[in-house]
Design a protein that fits this description.
The protein is mostly helical. The protein has 2 domains: about 280 residues, ABC transporter involved in vitamin B12 uptake, BtuC, CATH 1.10.3470.10; about 130 residues, Winged helix-like DNA-binding domain superfamily/Winged helix DNA-binding domain (Arc Repressor Mutant, subunit A, Orthogonal Bundle). It has 19 helices and 3 strands. The protein has a 3-stranded antiparallel beta sheet. The protein is elongated. The termini are far apart.
Length: about 425
């Protein structure tokens, strides 16, 4: 089977909702699912319950199988999607109760309880699925689609269901944002202020269950965790403010559903669920590289700090005496650049001056070096007089702190240590 690249014209039509009725229905439905997953998943991430989404997804399989077996006994069609989703929802609530009970009545940690429930219920589901496939009725085909999703089979009623879930999730997230965030960050304080933390937890779990069940049709129970975990994790790289984080998570989820399902509509035989997950992963990788809390800014911040530390060491080292070029290597123990290049950069900044045989401080360099040396003495004196640290043990700490003392803290140290440190 070859992987043909989709035509750009067809892809643009799908992205602009002009790819036909069925394609538009799928794109809208999965986009709404992504928004709902991002909203519910953001609070699950803050509450450290992201793995719980995976447990709920796998726990729905026995519920689907039991609903398939019980429906004919009640005079209902066995393969009716609403019937199967009701079974999945009931199984998810049972899994929720099991996890909560294990955490309440045992000493097991969250991950151990979730892992136990996930593996046991999914095992039961696989056994029931094997039993169903041996039945002579012949109407069990298609149940395996719930493992990996069947987005192409989405109908108008399914899209309306996803829209309803997205709307309910959005309203609940906006109305209860402050309460959800408070419970997530400090449950004890929330309880002390009179908030019903138990009911808030149940409300959050209900939202997660709704998103999980709704996602079975689109991405399947194996991949449903991705729509509720990856968008919030991606949004977390861009901000540390809850009021920005939650809408960003919804936006990343909606964009992943929109682009992934659009690509699937023009790429033959490529499942939409997997492409939605891959699109969400691509957004995460890009954010990991360039977001304010990502790798590149973190590396740049570390390099700037190390360069500043090396600069301060050089200035402090040259206060006592001018140094030849090779002597600077001793002071540049924290440098990330070669000694000669680092000295040249300090010269360009007006802090060093070449003497022909070595380097000496300029007036600006002398003032900066004296500031670093004084910070070192201030912190060393503080440790000795206020923290009962032995004088011969203060240098390692002072060598680090001297670079980060701000003006306000320096003034406080000077006031508290007046007379103990030479001016």
């Amino acid at each position: 089977m070859s992987l043909a690249a989709p035509g750009w014209q067809s892809l643009l039509e799908a992205l602009s909702l002009r790819g036909g009725h069925n394609t538009t229905l799928v794109v809208l439905g999965t986009s709404l699912l992504g928004i709902a997953g991002g909203l519910a998943g953001s609070f699950a991430l803050l509450r450290k319950r992201s793995l719980f989404v995976d447990a709920l997804g796998h726990a729905t399989l026995p519920g689907i199988c039991i609903a398939f077996l019980v429906a004919p006994l009640l005079g209902l069609p066995a393969r009716s999607l609403p019937v199967l989703l009701v079974g999945a929802a009931l199984a998810a609530f049972v899994a929720t109760l099991l996890v909560q009970s294990i955490l309440r009545f045992t000493r097991l940690s969250d991950d151990a309880a979730i892992g136990a429930v996930l593996s046991v219920l999914f095992g039961v589901g696989v056994v029931l699925l094997s039993v169903i496939q041996t039945l002579p009725s012949g109407d069990q085909g298609g149940l395996k689609s719930f493992l990996f999703g069947q987005t192409a089979a989405m109908q108008r009623g399914d899209a309306v269901l996803l829209a309803s879930i997205a709307a309910i999730t959005a309203v609940a997230s906006i109305v209860l944002m402050k309460e959800f965030a408070l419970v997530a960050f400090d449950e004890s304080f929330a309880r002390a202020t009179g908030l019903p933390t138990g009911r808030l937890d149940l409300a959050l779990l209900a939202l997660i269950v709704a998103v999980t069940v709704a996602g079975l049709q689109a991405v399947g129970l194996v991949l449903v965790i991705a729509i509720a975990v990856i968008p919030p994790v991606t949004a977390r790289l861009w901000t540390d403010r809850v009021r920005r984080f939650v809408p960003l998570a919804a936006a990343f989820g909606g964009v992943a559903g929109w682009i992934g399902s659009s690509i699937s509509s023009v790429a033959p035989r490529q499942p939409a669920g997997a492409l939605i997950v891959l699109t969400s992963t691509a957004l995460f990788v890009i954010s990991l590289a360039v977001a304010p809390r990502g790798l590149a800014p973190a590396i740049m911040r570390r390099l700037r700090v190390r360069a500043a530390m090396a600069r301060d060491h050089v200035l402090k080292h040259l206060l006592a005496r001018p140094a030849r070029s090779h002597d600077l290597a001793v002071a540049l123990g924290h440098a990330t650049l070669p000694t000669a290049l680092h000295a040249r950069l300090l010269s360009w900044r007006g802090l060093l001056r070449s003497t022909g045989e070595g380097w000496t401080l300029t007036e600006a360099g002398r003032i900066a070096g004296e500031r670093v040396a004084r910070n070192h003495r201030l912190w060393a004196a503080y440790l000795v007089s206020n923290a009962d640290v032995a004088p011969d043990h203060v240098d390692p700490s002072a060598e680090t702190i001297e670079h980060v003392l701000g003006d306000d803290l320096v003034r406080e140290l000077e006031a508290s240590l007046r007379g103990k440190v030479d001016a």
